[in-house]
Each structure stands twice: as C-alpha cells, then as structure tokens.
Design brief:
Blueprint: E1 7-20, E2 44-58, E3 64-81, H1 83-86, E4 98-118, E5 122-142, H2 151-154, E6 163-185, E7 190-210, E8 218-240, E9 243-254, E10 257-258, H3 264-273, E11 282-283, E12 286-299, E13 304-316
Antiparallel strand pairs: 1-2, 2-3, 3-4, 4-5, 5-6, 6-7, 7-8, 8-9, 9-12, 10-11, 12-13
Length: about 325
C-alpha cells in the first residue's frame, strides 16, 4: 500500500502445513524392491510461518530509506521406527520401538538501508542488520517395554528407565552487522566500488542428554563470540554501452560457533593425537578471499549475450 507518494508499505504472511502419514525409504539391506517390515508408522508434520513487513520512504535529493522486519517460525515433528536399530542388540525385528524427534526454529531479522547519491559521480548505501535466532532440538527414544533386557538376554542391559535416550539441545544465535558501500563514477568509462561490512556474532548452546544410548546423564554448555571486517573493492571499465570488463576483490566468512557434545572418555585417544587434550568449546569462522575478473556484454548487434569470469579463491581455516 502507498499512504503517500513517498511511502510504500508491503506486509506479507506465508503459512504452510505438511503432514505425511508414512515416509518412503529405500533400504539396500533388504534387497531390490523389498522393504523392512516396520512396526511403527513413520509420520512427519512440518509447519512453516513467515511474517514480513517492508517499508520504503523516498526523501528529497534521491535519498531512499528501506527497512525490512521478518519473523520466521518452523517446526518439524517426526516419529521413526527405531526397532531396526535395536536388532543389533539381539532383539527380535518385530519389536515395537519408537523414536520421536522435534526440531523448531524461531528467527527475528531486521535490516535497514539508506541509499542515495552525491552529485552525479557518487552513489552510496549504508545499513545495519540484526538477527536473533533460537533453535530447539529434542530427541526421545522411549523404552517401549524393554526393561527386561539384560546382557544375557539381549547382549546389553537396557535398564529400568522409561527412556533409552532423551536429548534436549537449545541454541541461540545473535548477529549484528553494519555495512556501507560507495561507487565512484570517474567518467563514462570507469567506476570504482568500495565497501566494508563489520559483523559481530554471539552464540551459545546447552545440551542435556541422558539414557542408555548416552551412557548416562551429561550436560554441556558452549558459547562463542567473534567479530571481524569484510572489505570489497571492484573496478569496472565500460568502453561503450555493450561491453563491461571488471575486476573484484572481496572477503567473505562463514560463522563459527560452539562445538557439539564430544564424549571425552571415548574420544580421548583421538583428542591426544590432535594435540588437544580436551574437547574444544568452540570452532572459529573460516574466511575466504575471492579474486575475480570477468566480462559482461552483448554481441552480434544485441542478438547474443556473453558473460564470462575467471576467479581464484583463497579459503583458510576451513571448518
């Protein structure tokens, strides 16, 4: 909607719900065109909601303010047949055994950009980006009547508890970025673009696992914090309106975060071999420098379009 000639407001809502009564799966262990005789219907329910609000206001002197707010929520609930896995412990394949899983994500994002021009030779844009995301991962394997299992009968003592495994993991991811870019049109042939993006990422993770398959209860907490600057420089040459040759240098990154649960007792030999001694609490971001040169243009009097590029990437601290 356009309350005024300068103001435009665009709200939107997307909702989707998917229910699956049974999951199709290919299982090579059973042979061609054969299927494992499952005792549990593998159901799935997936819900997705996205609410977005875009606001744009055009000031005088060719200055434009754009702001976008979005709320995203999704959840996936599944029921799996866990009996096939338990046959490795000597249990009969027809045992009724469920595996329950619930994964949900709630994310809020906000971005605001201000763009404009200085005279006829400079175009600019500055902005800020913010995101706050919460994730929940819940997995539960109830003890569906296996309390009688002992080492003599099943090859393992599954214990008297009502849960073979229960795991709850929560993650929070908060990101803030400030960015800006300026393009200088030197003349009708040359222009130069330079930009910077500063970011700060904060993450924390809490994992609470217990049950037979976890070897008992365990609680771990991890967090990570990092900030950096990503620059960009591009030079473009346009001999005429049909051809452009450009060169680009830019730095990118992929955020790090807290590490998942590492069972130190079981992995101590590997940790020692890596020279770590103890599990790391977080992994750092990896970075990428991209060097690119290319051509974009039209040929044969506009009847053909050609885009070509050559690039070199220097990827360090790969996760």
């Amino acid at each position: 909607m356009t309350p005024t000639d300068a103001l435009r407001i665009t709200p939107s809502i997307y909702y989707q719900s998917i229910k699956v009564d049974h999951e199709p799966q290919f299982e090579p262990d059973t042979g061609d065109l054969q299927f494992f005789d499952r005792r549990v219907e593998q159901k799935q329910e997936n819900k997705f909601t996205l609410v977005n609000l875009d606001i744009q206001y055009d000031f005088a002197n060719d200055i434009t303010l754009f702001s976008s707010l979005a709320w995203f929520d999704t959840s996936i609930e599944t029921v799996d047949d866990f009996g096939k896995f338990l046959t490795r412990f000597g249990l009969p394949p027809d045992h009724f055994q469920r595996g329950l899983q619930d994964i949900s994500t709630e994310r809020f994002t906000w971005e605001t950009r201000l763009s404009g021009s200085f005279g006829e030779n400079f175009d600019w844009i500055v902005g800020v980006f913010y995101m706050d995301e919460d994730r929940l991962f819940l997995q539960h394997v109830p003890n569906d009547g296996l309390q009688w299992c002992t080492v003599a009968l099943c090859g393992a003592d599954l214990g008297p508890d009502d849960s073979l495994f229960t795991g709850v993991q929560t993650n929070n991811d908060e990101r803030l970025a400030i960015f800006g870019e300026v393009t200088w049109t030197i003349n009708e042939y040359w222009d130069v673009t330079g930009g910077l993006r500063w970011f700060d990422n904060e993450q924390d993770q809490l994992a609470d696992f217990y049950g037979f398959f976890n070897g008992g209860p365990s609680v771990t907490f991890g967090e990570s914090s990092e900030s950096d600057v990503s620059p960009k420089l591009q030079v473009a040459y346009r001999p005429n309106g049909d051809h452009m040759i450009y060169g680009l240098v830019a730095k990118g990154f992929r955020p790090g975060g807290p590490t998942n649960l590492v069972p130190a007792a079981a992995c101590q030999a590997d940790l020692d071999a890596l020279g770590l001694g103890a599990p790391l609490a977080q992994f750092d971001a990896d970075t990428l420098w991209n060097y690119e040169a290319g051509y974009k243009g039209t040929l044969a009097q506009g009847r053909a379009t050609l885009n070509a590029a050559v690039f070199f990437m220097d990827w360090t601290d790969v996760q």
